[in-house]
Each structure stands twice: as C-alpha cells, then as structure tokens.
C-alpha cells in the first residue's frame, strides 16, 4: 500500500521505548504515517498500548540497526509498504560506561555499531530517494554528551561525538538537494536506557572518583528527568519549522550544559577533572556548566 502524497511518512528507529516511543506516537498524532522499528515485536507491547491510548497508529517493522541484513530487510519492507520516506529519525541507541584505560576495543565497537554505524546504515538507504525528490528531513538523536565529554562514559561519548561530526558534514552535503538535517541533543530524559546502563569496569581501582561522579550525575538527573514527549515535540518542531537550525538542545541539563561548555575554556574543562575532592568537582560543575549534580 502506498501513502498519499499529503501524508508525510516517517521512520523512527528504536521505537519500543523512551524517546523513540514518544516520538513515534507524537508524530502519528500529528498526522504522520509512522513506521516504528523494533528488534523484536515481543518488546513492543508497551508501545502498542500507549499508541492505542493516544489514538495513534504505529506500523511496526522488525529492524536491528546494528545488523546489515536486518536493515536491508526492514528497509525493503518499509519502502514496499509506503513507497517513500519523508523523515528519518535515527533514535536507536545504547549506553556504555568506561574510562579510556579500562574500555576494551570490543565495547567501543559494540556501542559505535548501534549509535553511529546504525544511523549511517539508515541514512544511506533513505538518501537516494530523498535526493530524487529533492526533499526530506533526517533527525539524528544525539545527546548532551555529544557536546560535553561526560566523565567515565568514553564509548557512549565517543559514539555521540562521531554522530555529531557526521551529521554536521551531512547537513552541508545534502543542502543542495533540499534535504534538512537536525541534531537533537537531549539531556537526562526518562528512558529505559539508564536502568540498563549501570556497568562500571573499574578494573584498576584508580578511577573510583570518576565512576562515582558519573553515577552521581545520573542520580541527580534521573530524579529530575524530562518526559520524553518534550524531545518528541522538539523533533516535530525540527521537521516542520520554517526557520530550522542544525542543533536542538533539550531536556534536563541539556541546554545549560551545551551553552556553558561552549563558553568554557578547554583549560577550565581539564582543571575541573583534576579535583581530588568530590565537593570541589560538583561545585565547579555547577559554576561552569550551570547544573547542580551534588548529592542532596
């Protein structure tokens, strides 16, 4: 079945939870025909229930962004059913905690394969028909840590910085074809990713403070986490606005940290990490980055 030209067709990856689920539902309620990708239909029960409650129709497609064959099959199904894609929202992602010394290359590869290569796989499939039609929007869900190298999360941070760099270059590459690129940078948003992201290798014992400060950041953030629907509304705005920008910082801590890190010197950034005392680190974090992460 093909879509009518008046109904925008959107694909949201990782639609079974958090930001992806909220975005899929919100776009559907805004009149989009939405294909939500999931690794398994068995994991989509909550998405189905929430979509039904919102009066939203989400068409599920089994697609694992980390697997070439799965992407090929899933994308072929979407194109066969819809005929085209107007908006791609690359949301699927995983976390990853470790300091550089203790992070195996295999963990870097695992996180990059989902957070970065996964987005590239989908972008390469959507661009030919967007170029042909001379229009479309690609929204890449990055993170505040795509702009601020948060402590002890090297695989996750690196994957998001790579996504930001690719997105920035992509925006110039596709501008002549009338294609819009938007980078959405959430701070702490209610999501299942945090419950899954609790590992801390700490093999040497030398980085106790680093991991402690990492988990304190998330402890404060989770307590005040933003509803993912706020990110969903930002995605919809990025798609529909007549005055687009490249980057959209959103959610708890996001806008403050992105703006303040831009204003900091690199020397201030390095000096903040040198604090031996947690209280001094938390004090500098609030003074320089505008967010209080100290224990309450």
Write a structural description.
Strand 1 (9-12), helix 1 (18-29) and strand 2 form a beta-alpha-beta unit. Strands 3-2-1-4-5-6-7 form a seven-stranded parallel β-sheet, sandwiched between helices. It is 50% helix and 12% strand. It has helices spanning 18-29, 45-54, 68-82, 105-115, 117-133, 154-174, 193-196, 208-223, 228-240, 254-263, 266-273, 278-289, and strands at residues 9-12, 33-38, 58-62, 87-90, 136-141, 179-186, 247-250. The chain has one domain (9-206, 226-264): Rossmann fold (3-Layer(aba) Sandwich). It is α/β, with parallel strands linked by helices and 296 residues long. The radius of gyration is 19 Å and the shape is globular. The chain contains twelve helices and seven strands. It starts with 8 loop residues before the first strand and ends in a 7-residue tail after the last helix. Helix 1 crosses helix 9 (228-240).
Number of strands: 7
How do the strands of the widest beta sheet line up side by side?
3-2-1-4-5-6-7
Low-confidence stretches: none
CATH class: Alpha Beta
Strand residues, percent = 5-15%
Give the count of structural domains: 1
Distance between the termini: 55 Å
Return the structural class: alpha/beta
Task: Note the overall shape.
Answer: globular
Gyration radius, to the nearest Å?
19 Å
Q: What is the helix tally?
A: 12
How helical, in percent, are the residues?
A: 40-55%
Element-level helix/strand string: EHEHEHEHHEHEHHHEHHH
CATH structural fold name = Rossmann fold
Mean pLDDT: 94
CATH homolog superfamily: NAD(P)-binding Rossmann-like Domain
Query: Main β-sheet, in a few words?
Result: 7 strands, parallel
CATH architecture annotation = 3-Layer(aba) Sandwich
């Amino acid at each position: 079945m093909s879509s009518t030209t008046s109904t925008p067709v959107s694909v949201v990856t990782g639609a079974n939870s958090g930001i992806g689920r909220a975005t899929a539902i919100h776009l559907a309620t805004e009149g989009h025909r939405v294909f939500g990708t999931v690794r398994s239909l068995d994991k989509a029960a909550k998405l189905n229930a929430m979509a039904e409650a919102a009066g939203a129709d989400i068409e599920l497609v089994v697609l694992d962004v980390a697997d070439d064959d799965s992407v090929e099959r899933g994308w072929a199904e979407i194109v066969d059913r819809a005929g085209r894609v107007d908006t791609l929202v690359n949301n699927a992602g995983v976390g990853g905690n470790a300091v550089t010394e203790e992070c195996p290359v295999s963990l870097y590869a695992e996180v990059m394969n989902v957070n970065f290569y996964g987005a590239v796989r989908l972008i390469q499939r959507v661009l030919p028909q967007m170029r042909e039609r001379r229009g479309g929007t690609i929204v890449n869900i990055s993170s505040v840590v795509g702009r601020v190298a948060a402590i002890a999360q090297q695989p996750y941070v690196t994957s998001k910085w790579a996504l930001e760099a690719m997105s920035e270059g992509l925006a110039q590459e596709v501008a002549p074809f009338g294609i819009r690129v938007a980078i959405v940078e959430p701070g702490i948003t209610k999501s299942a990713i945090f419950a899954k992201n609790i590992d801390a290798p700490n093999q040497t014992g030398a980085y106790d403070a680093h991991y402690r400060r990492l988990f304190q950041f998330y402890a404060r953030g989770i307590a005040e986490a933003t509803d993912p629907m706020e990110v969903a509304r930002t995605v919809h705005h990025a798609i529909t606005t007549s005055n687009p920008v490249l980057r959209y910082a959103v959610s708890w801590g996001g806008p403050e940290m992105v703006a303040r890190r831009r204003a900091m010197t690199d020397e201030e950034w390095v000096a903040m990490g040198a604090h031996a005392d947690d209280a001094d680190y938390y004090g500098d974090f609030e003074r320089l980055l505008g967010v209080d992460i100290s224990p309450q």
